[in-house]
Amino acid sequence: MINENRFWNSFLLPYELAVSGFIIKLESIRKEFLFKKISNPIESISGRVKTVSSILEKAERLGIDFHNISEEIYDIAGIRIICKYIQDVYHVFELLKTRKDIDIFLIKDYIENSKPSGYRSLHLIAKYGVETVDGRVPINIEFQIRTYAMHLWASIEHSLKYKYYRQIPDEIKERLVEASKITVQLDEEMAKIKQAIAEISVEKVRPEEYELENIGLFLDNIYKR
Q1: Which of 32, 72, 94, 142 is catalytic?
Q2: Distance (Å, rounded) from C-alpha 218 to C-alpha 130?
Q3: Domains of the chain (ranges plus CATH)?
Q4: Deepest of 7, 33, 92, 221, by most Cβ within 10 A of its Cβ?
Q5: Is 188 one of the catalytic residues?
Q6: pLDDT in tens, 211-221
Q7: How big is the CA angle at 19 (ends 15 and 22), to the nearest 5 degrees?
Q8: Tell me, what DSSP letter sits at residue 127?
């Protein structure tokens, strides 16, 4: 048991370093937008590293061999970025595409093509080299970029999946699909409002505030699931 715990602690450490590091990097970008008084596409950032039980459950569900877990499970390390508007989601995507420290090799656009369940989000899977005391360790890291409306829906669906062991009653599934359609309408209207705001000339606008004052708050956003 001790050896098993030691193995998993060692295995997960690069993922934890990656998540904590990217939270700081992205918060720095967000802070720069606000300081320069440029329209800020990033509302909030959080991250998580999958638990051992979640990793093993997913490997079993997908038929992934234990020795291939690090290569074939893409979301052991996950970063979630919440935006106000759909335009901002794709703005963040462009920002991530230009980064030289990650190599995006898979894009899953569930906004253009939502899942049958109604789930909507933009997923980017990238290779990232984590610097450790033993050298650079290549890992997969997933970025989920979504609006507030998408996030509310996804959070509720996730909690229901957990409650019903992934077997959500059909009646609830149907209602979730209908609720997802409402989030589409909301995001479309918000996108129109953003465009209208951009076309209106106002003499004086109060700048957005930057609320994070302590670097420790970045790390508090890391959770395990």
Answers
A1: 142
A2: 18
A3: 2-148 (3.30.460.10)
A4: 92
A5: no
A6: 554 444 445 55
A7: 135
A8: E
